[in-house]
């Protein structure tokens, strides 16, 4: 189980870098929250929502695994 920690932490860091790069390639990165208004029609909005959900699940899984708490396996499966 502890062998999964470096891989999960690495995936979390890479996903954070990817989401940051995604936000910075926009014309006005500070207006990223405005992109969330049109989730039904905008692929950029969906990217932000699903990447954030992925990061939340993976980050919580990393924290649970680091502190040796149960419940990290379902989060890893979800992520």
TrEMBL record:
Offer one example of a GO biological process linked to this entry: anaerobic electron transport chain
Q: Which is one Gene Ontology cellular component term of this protein? A: plasma membrane
- Which Pfam families does this UniProt record tie to the protein? DmsC (PF04976)
Q: Which UniProt keywords apply?
A: Membrane, Transmembrane, Transmembrane helix
Spell out the InterPro entries in the cross-references.
DmsC
Cite the GO molecular-function annotations of the record: dimethyl sulfoxide reductase activity
Domain of life assignment: Bacteria
Question: Where are its TM segments located?
Answer: 7-28, 48-67
Q: What is this protein called?
A: Anaerobic dimethyl sulfoxide reductase chain C
Name the source organism: Salmonella enterica subsp. enterica serovar Urbana str. R8-2977
């Amino acid at each position: 189980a502890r062998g999964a920690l470096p891989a999960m932490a690495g995936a979390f860091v890479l996903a954070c870098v990817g989401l940051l790069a995604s936000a910075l390639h926009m014309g006005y990165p500070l207006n990223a929250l405005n992109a969330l208004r049109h989730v039904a029609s905008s692929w950029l909005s969906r990217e932000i929502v699903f990447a954030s959900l992925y990061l939340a699940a993976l980050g919580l899984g990393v924290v649970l695994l680091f502190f040796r708490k149960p419940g990290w396996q379902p989060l890893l499966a979800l992520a």
